[in-house]
Write the C-alpha coordinates for this entry.
Amino acid sequence: MKVQLLDAGSCVHPQHVVLRNRSIRPMRFHSMFSLMIHPKEGVILFDTGYSEQFLDVTRKFPGRIYTLTTPVRFSREESAVQKLKRMGISANDVRHIIISHFHADHYGAIADFPKAKYWFHHGAWESIRHKSRWRAIFSGFLPELIPQDFVARSVPLHARDQIPLPPEFAPFQRGVDMFGDETITLVDLHGHATGQLGCFVQSEMGTPIFLIADASWTTKSFQEIIVPHPITKILFSDYDIYQQTLHDIKNFAAKRPEYLIIPSHCPHIHHEHCNKGDL
Ligand SMILES: [Zn+2]
Protein backbone atom coordinates (compact mmCIF):
# COMPACT_ATOMS: atom_id res chain seq x y z
CA MET A 1 0.00 0.00 0.00
CA LYS A 2 1.29 3.39 -0.98
CA VAL A 3 0.18 6.22 1.29
CA GLN A 4 0.50 9.98 0.85
CA LEU A 5 -0.65 12.82 3.02
CA LEU A 6 -2.17 15.76 1.11
CA ASP A 7 -4.17 18.86 2.03
CA ALA A 8 -7.14 20.70 0.56
CA GLY A 9 -7.60 24.09 2.19
CA SER A 10 -7.24 25.39 5.72
CA CYS A 11 -9.02 27.39 8.39
CA VAL A 12 -7.93 29.88 11.02
CA HIS A 13 -8.64 29.78 14.75
CA PRO A 14 -7.05 31.46 17.76
CA GLN A 15 -4.48 29.00 19.11
CA HIS A 16 -6.25 28.68 22.49
CA VAL A 17 -9.39 27.25 20.88
CA VAL A 18 -7.45 24.14 19.95
CA LEU A 19 -4.94 24.03 22.80
CA ARG A 20 -6.53 25.38 25.95
CA ASN A 21 -4.56 28.05 27.83
CA ARG A 22 -2.41 28.86 24.82
CA SER A 23 -2.23 32.28 23.16
CA ILE A 24 -5.06 33.97 21.27
CA ARG A 25 -2.73 34.36 18.28
CA PRO A 26 -4.46 33.15 15.10
CA MET A 27 -3.16 29.83 13.86
CA ARG A 28 -3.70 28.10 10.52
CA PHE A 29 -5.05 24.56 10.54
CA HIS A 30 -4.76 22.66 7.28
CA SER A 31 -7.35 20.12 6.23
CA MET A 32 -5.31 17.04 5.48
CA PHE A 33 -6.55 13.91 3.78
CA SER A 34 -4.79 10.68 2.81
CA LEU A 35 -4.35 9.09 -0.57
CA MET A 36 -3.83 5.33 -0.45
CA ILE A 37 -3.16 3.04 -3.37
CA HIS A 38 -4.11 -0.53 -2.61
CA PRO A 39 -2.56 -3.21 -4.86
CA LYS A 40 -5.98 -4.75 -5.66
CA GLU A 41 -8.57 -2.15 -4.65
CA GLY A 42 -6.94 0.85 -6.30
CA VAL A 43 -7.30 4.43 -5.13
CA ILE A 44 -8.71 5.06 -1.67
CA LEU A 45 -9.09 8.37 0.17
CA PHE A 46 -9.38 8.95 3.89
CA ASP A 47 -11.40 12.20 3.99
CA THR A 48 -11.26 14.82 1.23
CA GLY A 49 -10.85 18.36 2.61
CA TYR A 50 -12.83 21.27 1.14
CA SER A 51 -14.18 21.53 -2.43
CA GLU A 52 -15.31 24.09 -4.99
CA GLN A 53 -18.89 23.19 -4.09
CA PHE A 54 -18.12 24.10 -0.46
CA LEU A 55 -17.25 27.61 -1.66
CA ASP A 56 -20.58 27.86 -3.52
CA VAL A 57 -22.63 26.62 -0.57
CA THR A 58 -20.95 28.95 1.94
CA ARG A 59 -21.22 32.04 -0.28
CA LYS A 60 -24.87 32.58 0.72
CA PHE A 61 -26.93 32.12 3.90
CA PRO A 62 -27.42 29.87 5.73
CA GLY A 63 -24.21 28.15 4.58
CA ARG A 64 -22.39 31.46 5.02
CA ILE A 65 -22.65 30.98 8.81
CA TYR A 66 -20.08 28.19 8.52
CA THR A 67 -17.36 30.43 7.10
CA LEU A 68 -18.30 33.34 9.37
CA THR A 69 -17.59 31.18 12.42
CA THR A 70 -14.70 29.26 10.82
CA PRO A 71 -12.76 31.44 8.35
CA VAL A 72 -11.65 29.14 5.52
CA ARG A 73 -8.86 29.67 3.03
CA PHE A 74 -9.31 27.52 -0.04
CA SER A 75 -8.99 27.86 -3.81
CA ARG A 76 -10.20 25.55 -6.57
CA GLU A 77 -6.64 24.42 -7.42
CA GLU A 78 -6.19 23.14 -3.87
CA SER A 79 -9.11 20.69 -4.03
CA ALA A 80 -8.48 16.95 -3.75
CA VAL A 81 -9.86 16.33 -7.24
CA GLN A 82 -7.50 18.91 -8.81
CA LYS A 83 -4.50 17.71 -6.78
CA LEU A 84 -5.09 14.09 -7.78
CA LYS A 85 -5.55 15.14 -11.41
CA ARG A 86 -2.09 16.76 -11.37
CA MET A 87 -0.76 13.44 -10.04
CA GLY A 88 -2.36 11.56 -12.95
CA ILE A 89 -5.33 10.21 -10.94
CA SER A 90 -8.74 11.04 -12.38
CA ALA A 91 -11.89 11.53 -10.29
CA ASN A 92 -13.28 8.26 -11.68
CA ASP A 93 -10.19 6.37 -10.47
CA VAL A 94 -11.12 6.89 -6.81
CA ARG A 95 -12.84 3.66 -5.75
CA HIS A 96 -13.34 4.13 -2.02
CA ILE A 97 -13.62 7.11 0.33
CA ILE A 98 -13.48 6.62 4.07
CA ILE A 99 -15.40 9.47 5.72
CA SER A 100 -13.96 9.91 9.21
CA HIS A 101 -16.96 12.04 10.21
CA PHE A 102 -19.46 14.44 8.69
CA HIS A 103 -17.76 17.79 9.29
CA ALA A 104 -17.49 19.76 6.05
CA ASP A 105 -13.68 20.08 6.24
CA HIS A 106 -13.49 16.26 6.13
CA TYR A 107 -16.24 15.07 3.75
CA GLY A 108 -16.67 18.34 1.79
CA ALA A 109 -15.44 16.99 -1.55
CA ILE A 110 -17.02 13.51 -1.66
CA ALA A 111 -19.34 14.57 -4.51
CA ASP A 112 -16.29 15.20 -6.72
CA PHE A 113 -15.69 11.44 -7.01
CA PRO A 114 -18.64 9.89 -8.89
CA LYS A 115 -17.47 6.25 -8.80
CA ALA A 116 -16.37 6.02 -5.17
CA LYS A 117 -18.01 3.92 -2.48
CA TYR A 118 -18.45 5.81 0.78
CA TRP A 119 -17.39 4.06 3.98
CA PHE A 120 -18.49 5.59 7.27
CA HIS A 121 -19.85 4.73 10.70
CA HIS A 122 -23.58 4.04 10.50
CA GLY A 123 -24.11 6.07 13.69
CA ALA A 124 -22.28 9.08 12.24
CA TRP A 125 -24.73 9.38 9.36
CA GLU A 126 -27.79 8.65 11.53
CA SER A 127 -26.76 11.39 13.96
CA ILE A 128 -26.84 14.14 11.33
CA ARG A 129 -29.15 13.11 8.50
CA HIS A 130 -32.33 14.26 10.25
CA LYS A 131 -30.92 17.47 11.72
CA SER A 132 -32.72 20.70 10.86
CA ARG A 133 -30.93 23.04 8.44
CA TRP A 134 -29.69 25.32 11.23
CA ARG A 135 -28.73 22.61 13.67
CA ALA A 136 -26.80 20.92 10.87
CA ILE A 137 -24.72 24.03 10.20
CA PHE A 138 -23.89 24.44 13.87
CA SER A 139 -22.76 20.79 13.81
CA GLY A 140 -20.40 21.52 10.90
CA PHE A 141 -22.63 19.64 8.44
CA LEU A 142 -23.68 21.13 5.08
CA PRO A 143 -26.26 18.77 3.49
CA GLU A 144 -25.73 20.25 0.00
CA LEU A 145 -22.31 18.55 -0.10
CA ILE A 146 -23.90 15.10 0.01
CA PRO A 147 -24.36 13.75 -3.56
CA GLN A 148 -27.80 12.59 -4.77
CA ASP A 149 -26.73 8.96 -5.03
CA PHE A 150 -24.99 8.94 -1.65
CA VAL A 151 -27.12 6.17 -0.11
CA ALA A 152 -26.74 3.92 -3.17
CA ARG A 153 -22.95 4.20 -2.96
CA SER A 154 -22.73 3.92 0.82
CA VAL A 155 -21.12 1.25 2.96
CA PRO A 156 -22.37 2.15 6.46
CA LEU A 157 -20.42 0.26 9.11
CA HIS A 158 -22.21 -1.34 12.06
CA ALA A 159 -20.92 -2.92 15.28
CA ARG A 160 -21.56 -6.34 13.67
CA ASP A 161 -18.95 -5.55 10.99
CA GLN A 162 -16.22 -5.25 13.63
CA ILE A 163 -13.93 -8.13 14.52
CA PRO A 164 -11.70 -8.53 17.60
CA LEU A 165 -8.29 -6.99 16.95
CA PRO A 166 -4.97 -8.58 17.92
CA PRO A 167 -3.47 -7.34 21.23
CA GLU A 168 -0.98 -5.14 19.31
CA PHE A 169 -3.83 -2.70 18.71
CA ALA A 170 -4.65 -2.27 22.42
CA PRO A 171 -6.38 -0.32 23.86
CA PHE A 172 -8.37 -0.57 20.62
CA GLN A 173 -10.14 -3.91 20.80
CA ARG A 174 -12.45 -4.11 17.81
CA GLY A 175 -12.29 -2.84 14.26
CA VAL A 176 -13.32 -3.35 10.65
CA ASP A 177 -10.75 -5.02 8.40
CA MET A 178 -11.84 -3.12 5.28
CA PHE A 179 -10.71 -5.55 2.58
CA GLY A 180 -10.02 -8.64 4.73
CA ASP A 181 -6.25 -8.35 4.16
CA GLU A 182 -5.25 -6.27 7.21
CA THR A 183 -4.04 -3.35 5.07
CA ILE A 184 -6.71 -0.94 6.38
CA THR A 185 -8.42 -1.34 9.74
CA LEU A 186 -11.11 1.10 10.85
CA VAL A 187 -11.74 1.74 14.55
CA ASP A 188 -14.19 3.88 16.52
CA LEU A 189 -12.75 7.10 17.91
CA HIS A 190 -15.86 8.50 19.55
CA GLY A 191 -16.27 11.84 21.25
CA HIS A 192 -15.37 14.55 18.77
CA ALA A 193 -18.26 13.53 16.53
CA THR A 194 -20.68 10.61 16.83
CA GLY A 195 -19.15 7.59 15.12
CA GLN A 196 -15.85 9.21 14.20
CA LEU A 197 -13.58 6.64 12.55
CA GLY A 198 -9.83 6.22 12.85
CA CYS A 199 -7.81 4.20 10.39
CA PHE A 200 -4.78 1.94 10.82
CA VAL A 201 -2.82 1.62 7.57
CA GLN A 202 0.08 -0.69 6.77
CA SER A 203 2.23 1.28 4.33
CA GLU A 204 4.67 -0.50 2.03
CA MET A 205 7.33 2.03 3.02
CA GLY A 206 7.44 0.30 6.40
CA THR A 207 5.96 3.00 8.61
CA PRO A 208 2.66 1.89 10.09
CA ILE A 209 0.19 4.77 10.15
CA PHE A 210 -2.73 5.65 12.38
CA LEU A 211 -5.04 8.31 10.91
CA ILE A 212 -7.03 9.76 13.79
CA ALA A 213 -8.88 12.67 12.08
CA ASP A 214 -10.19 15.04 14.80
CA ALA A 215 -9.91 12.67 17.76
CA SER A 216 -6.98 14.93 18.65
CA TRP A 217 -6.43 18.24 16.90
CA THR A 218 -2.65 18.18 17.25
CA THR A 219 0.06 15.68 18.19
CA LYS A 220 0.69 17.61 21.40
CA SER A 221 -2.99 17.31 22.34
CA PHE A 222 -2.81 13.53 22.82
CA GLN A 223 0.81 13.42 24.00
CA GLU A 224 0.16 15.89 26.82
CA ILE A 225 -3.64 15.49 27.08
CA ILE A 226 -4.33 19.11 26.26
CA VAL A 227 -8.04 19.53 25.70
CA PRO A 228 -9.49 22.24 23.47
CA HIS A 229 -11.16 25.40 24.79
CA PRO A 230 -14.54 24.68 26.46
CA ILE A 231 -16.19 26.75 23.70
CA THR A 232 -15.61 23.78 21.37
CA LYS A 233 -17.88 21.61 23.55
CA ILE A 234 -20.83 22.71 21.42
CA LEU A 235 -19.16 21.07 18.42
CA PHE A 236 -18.30 17.81 20.17
CA SER A 237 -20.71 14.91 20.43
CA ASP A 238 -19.43 13.85 23.87
CA TYR A 239 -16.67 15.76 25.63
CA ASP A 240 -16.06 13.07 28.30
CA ILE A 241 -15.72 10.30 25.74
CA TYR A 242 -13.53 12.62 23.67
CA GLN A 243 -11.11 12.83 26.62
CA GLN A 244 -11.19 9.05 27.07
CA THR A 245 -10.32 8.62 23.37
CA LEU A 246 -7.46 11.10 23.78
CA HIS A 247 -6.07 8.90 26.59
CA ASP A 248 -6.50 5.76 24.44
CA ILE A 249 -4.45 7.36 21.65
CA LYS A 250 -1.79 8.47 24.13
CA ASN A 251 -1.56 4.91 25.52
CA PHE A 252 -1.38 3.41 22.05
CA ALA A 253 1.35 5.88 21.03
CA ALA A 254 3.41 5.01 24.13
CA LYS A 255 3.19 1.26 23.36
CA ARG A 256 3.68 1.52 19.62
CA PRO A 257 6.19 4.34 19.03
CA GLU A 258 6.85 3.06 15.49
CA TYR A 259 3.42 4.31 14.40
CA LEU A 260 3.08 7.65 12.66
CA ILE A 261 -0.07 9.07 14.23
CA ILE A 262 -1.77 11.68 12.08
CA PRO A 263 -4.32 14.16 13.44
CA SER A 264 -5.95 15.81 10.39
CA HIS A 265 -5.11 19.38 11.41
CA CYS A 266 -1.78 19.10 13.27
CA PRO A 267 0.57 21.94 12.10
CA HIS A 268 3.67 19.88 12.97
CA ILE A 269 2.53 16.82 10.96
CA HIS A 270 1.55 19.14 8.12
CA HIS A 271 4.99 20.71 8.08
CA GLU A 272 6.84 17.38 8.26
CA HIS A 273 4.77 15.04 6.10
CA CYS A 274 2.14 16.76 3.98
CA ASN A 275 2.58 17.03 0.18
CA LYS A 276 5.94 15.27 0.51
CA GLY A 277 5.39 11.99 -1.32
CA ASP A 278 5.03 8.46 0.05
CA LEU A 279 4.91 8.03 3.82
ZN1 LIG B 1 -14.34 17.55 13.00
Notes: The mean pLDDT is 94. Residues 101, 103, 192-193, 214 surround zinc ion (CB under 6 Å). Residues 109 and 132 are 22 Å apart (CA to CA). The two ends are 10 Å apart (CA to CA).
